[in-house]
Structures are given as structure tokens and as C-alpha cells.
Amino acid sequence: MMTNNVRLRDDLARISDWIEPERRVLDLGCGDGTLLAYLKQTKRVQGVGVEISDERVLACVQRGVHVIQQNLEDGLAMFDDQQFDTVVLSQTLQSMHNTEHILREMARVARQGVVSFPNFGYWPHGWSILMGRMPVTGQMPYDWYDTPNIHLCTLKDFERLADKLGFTILERATFNDSHEVKWLAGWRSTLAAYRFTARPG
Q1: Predicted confidence (pLDDT) at residue 4 exceeds the cutoff of 60
Q2: At what angle do helices 155-164 and 99-109 cross, to 10 degrees?
Q3: Which InterPro entries does the entry mention (predicted)?
Q4: What is the CATH number of the domain that holds 168?
Q5: Which domain does 183 fall in, by range?
Q6: Would you tell me how many other CB atoms lie within 10 Å of the CB of residue 156?
Q7: pLDDT band at residue 39, thresholds of 50, 70 and 90?
């Protein structure tokens, strides 16, 4: 998806589809602010980003994105309960040390959460392991010794964790390169995005 020569990654394009106009959005690990800038321009959202990198924080500011510089591992204590309509964590979940904590915090600060992550269940990954090597692919381009990805998971792994945490999955989208995958998504997709909400009580 493109606007003003800005092309959103496939998962970000789907995430933008899931966000209604004029909502309050928190983007965790927001990078250079591309998603929030896009949502601000096309859907008039009130957006806040959280990012640790000096360079990316500067890029956010240059895009006119409101950004807070902080390590996500420190939690989201600066935000109130249900302060946002949607909280996004795109392609960052797999690098978090305390996965359950950040997901619970997402459910606390917003009505709905959205995550995307590389699918470790993609079939060439299994083939690579059978051949004695950790997989290196487009969605996971790092060697085992320098990867930031410390908690890899499959689609079923995430869905089991979501159920354990008391979440209801509202929508799922899976991709391979620029194509959406629906048939045998657990094996054929390289990237997954989920929209979820906490179950009442």
C-alpha cells in the first residue's frame, strides 16, 4: 500500500486496515514512524510511538510523529489503562525478553492489540534444520550468533499463548513475500499478523 510515495510493509498495510479513523494508536517499536505518519495522514489518528534508537527517534520527529524514547523491556507504566484504542507491536515480539509481560501490558493500555512476527513454522525453516543449519531467510536474515530474534514461534504457538493470556483473536493475516497466504498458512507463510482483545473478566 502506498501514499505520497510511502510503501507500507505488507503487515503494516493490513494493520492500517484494522485501525478505524480518528482513533488513538500506540505503536511500540515504531521504527522511523512510517506507520503512524501514514495513519495520521490517511485516517487522522492520534498516534504515539515508542522507540529506543536515537536515529529512528529523530526520523519520527522529522515525520511529525509524537515519539517517546524508551526501552520496551521497561514496560508501559507511563500509560494509563485503556488510554488507547489500538496498540501495535510489529515485527518486535520475537526480540522481547519478557513476551508475556509486554502482551499483558498491551491488553491493559488499549482496547485491542495488534502484533506481527516472522513465522518459524514456514516449511523451509524445518528443512534447513533437518540439514543441520539454523534457517536464514528474508524474514529472519540473521545468523544464529548475531540474531536479535530470541523467541521465535509458529502460528499455533502464538495462538496458544494468546489463549493462555485470556485473549480473543479477532483476525489473522499471513503473508509470503507480497502475497497473502490462506491455505496451509502455518507452513506456507513467512509472516503473520494478529488482531486481538482481552476477554472480559
Answers
A1: no
A2: 60
A3: Methionine_synth_MetW, Methyltransf_Superfamily, SAM-dependent_MTases_sf
A4: 3.40.50.150
A5: 2-198
A6: 10
A7: very high
